[in-house]
Amino acid sequence: MSMFCYQCQETAKNQGCTIRGVCGKTPEISHLQDLLIWLLKGISFWGVRARTNLNISDAETDLFVAKALFGTITNVNFDPERYAAWIEEAVTRREALRARAQAACKAAHGDAACFTALPEAATWTPERYDAQTLELKGREVGIFADSDLDEDVRSLRELLIYGLKGLAAYTEHAYVLEHTHNALLAFLQEALDATLDDSLGADDLVGLVLKAGETGVAAMQLLDEANTGTYGHPEPTQVNLGVQPGPAILISGHDLRDLEELLQQTEGTGVNVYTHGEMLPANAYPAFKKYAHFVGNYGGSWWRQQQEFDTFGGAILMTTNCLVPPKAGYQDRLFTTGLVGWPGVPHIPDRQPGQQKDFSAVIARAQTAAEPQPLEAGTMPIGFAHAAVMSVADQVIAAVQRGDIRRFVVMAGCDGRQRSREYYTQIAEGLPEDHVILTAGCAKYRYNKLDLGNIGGIPRILDAGQCNDSYSLAYIALQLKEALGLEDINDLPISYDIAWYEQKAVIVLLALLSLGVKHIRLGPTLPAFLSPNVVKVLVDAFDIRPIGAAAEDLVAISAGR
Ligand code: SF4
Ligand code: SF3
């Protein structure tokens, strides 16, 4: 086995990538990621003890842990040099925290009482930061580092870590917009530290997994406040799918601040800006709609980028996941920023305090590149986040009470390459006409261009936005429960048919469970990292089920099962 990773839905044979990642991740990157995660556990060991016993914390290190976790999400970063730099920073930060904690503890309690049993992750320091040394250590500390570990404990630790990655991503997005909540960062460390603790059994870890879900709700709420507080509430909008003459930049990923600064810097340059993948919902924000050169969306979800970036012709900016190994046809037009990286692809550095990022290299590249070739034409409705839906709440509730809307089906989450995801198109096409789809995330690209009509003016596909906007769906459900005078969220006429791919979907799932949502269908496959016993816990407590054949699931969904 040259590597082992099973964190995403496309893992090989739904068991694990052992030779090279289906995503393009090399064994080298896999080992560097394993080492980085292990060192984040080591930072957390000191972080938790310093915070809880000694009232010591380091805000920059707390945020570093979140950023580094985000950096290891599927399809974020494939650049070994960036990982080596993060690993070195992790050791430096850990040692600084350790020195402060040990000094404070000794001063308070004396040498003998302080930190006697230290896990290796809390102390290991490499002789050199060269790729070979780091990779070698990464091989020792991966998922199977302890071959005797109980398989359910391993499964729960990994489930927790993947949930934390998603939680870290949402938290980091909110921090970029200067919306902060220290408890979120503290929980990341509490949970990472717990994965080093061999005294914790399956029950303890299940408790932490559920706490991760609750913390996920808080992170999604914070991010919602950050996005809507900074850029206004998304408005129902018909987004253009065609192209316009002129040089162009395609911006993808989830980072709205990058988009804002790119729009400001391209204004008046003659360069048009289009969205791709998860940036599509930005077309519904008042703060961005005001730019005349922000002209629409190009293409579909992340996995289509190898074809669509090729035909786009212009410059391309990846602000977050999902980055697919670039093809030669567009690699010289591709730029990364934030936590994203690919070896040899120019990276736009982080913003300095009080300044914008400098996107001039992206703009200059667009000015010498080709114009976009049309892929499709027409428009598509977007912008149905919670404020827009709640502004017509009376209409929605009346339609439910009259029976015009008999059921909502939450079809949020991720898209992916596998053919089995045609299931989601079949479900969308096959739902009865009195069913309304609520969606968020790139899962929607399996059906968002279908014309499913509307019910009394309410579109049958209500797109709340990015996966980052999943909070909207929970908010709408909770508001409907109140308005309809129901006791239990599960009494609502809502079914959940969720598609997952990467780790942000894991925290969305855990957040839904923490809100008490039951009977979720999850597909296209159940996560490979769930052991049979952990699946059983989820089934017994929450009635989670794998998707079945579309025809059978349609009957069951419609019957409220
Ligand atoms: Fe495989 Fe997914 Fe891990 Fe990539 S992220 S190596 S595809 S399991
Ligand atoms: Fe998509 Fe990567 Fe999950 Fe944001 S962009 S939802 S997969």
Provide an overview of this structure:
The protein has 561 residues and is of the alpha/beta class. It folds into three domains: 145 residues, Up-down Bundle (Substrate Binding Domain Of Dnak, Chain:A, Domain 2); 132 residues, Rossmann fold, CATH 3.40.50; 169 residues, Rossmann fold (3-Layer(aba) Sandwich), CATH 3.40.50. It is built from 19 helices and 16 strands. It has a six-stranded parallel β-sheet with strand order 4-3-2-5-6-7, covered by helices on one side. The protein has a six-stranded parallel β-sheet with strand order 13-10-9-14-15-16, covered by helices on one side. Strand 15, helix 18 and strand 16 form a beta-alpha-beta unit. Helix 2 packs antiparallel against helix 3 and helix 15 packs across helix 19. The longest helix is centred in the N-terminal third of the chain and has 30 residues. It is globular and about 75 Å long. Iron/sulfur cluster binds next to loops.
Question: Quick recap of the structure?
Answer:
46% of the residues lie in helices and 10% in strands. By secondary structure, it is α/β, with parallel strands linked by helices. Residues 75, 277-278, 302, 321-322, 414, 441-442, 466-467, 501-502, 504-505 line the site of FE4-S3 cluster.
Oligomer: single chain
The percent range for strand residues is 5-15%
If you consult CATH, what is the topology of the largest domain?
Rossmann fold
Helicity range of the residues?
40-55%
Question: What is the fold's blueprint, element by element?
Answer:
Elements: H1 27-54, H2 59-71, H3 80-109, H4 131-140, H5 151-176, H6 182-194, H7 202-231, E1 237-240, E2 248-252, H8 256-266, E3 272-275, H9 286-289, E4 294-297, H10 305-312, E5 315-318, H11 328-331, E6 334-337, E7 347-348, H12 360-368, E8 379-382, H13 386-391, H14 393-402, E9 407-410, H15 422-430, E10 435-439, E11 454-455, E12 458-459, E13 461-463, H16 470-483, E14 494-499, H17 503-514, E15 521-523, H18 532-542, E16 545-546, H19 550-558
Bound molecules: iron/sulfur cluster and FE4-S3 cluster.
Residues 5-8, 10-11, 17, 21-23, 25, 74 line the site of iron/sulfur cluster.
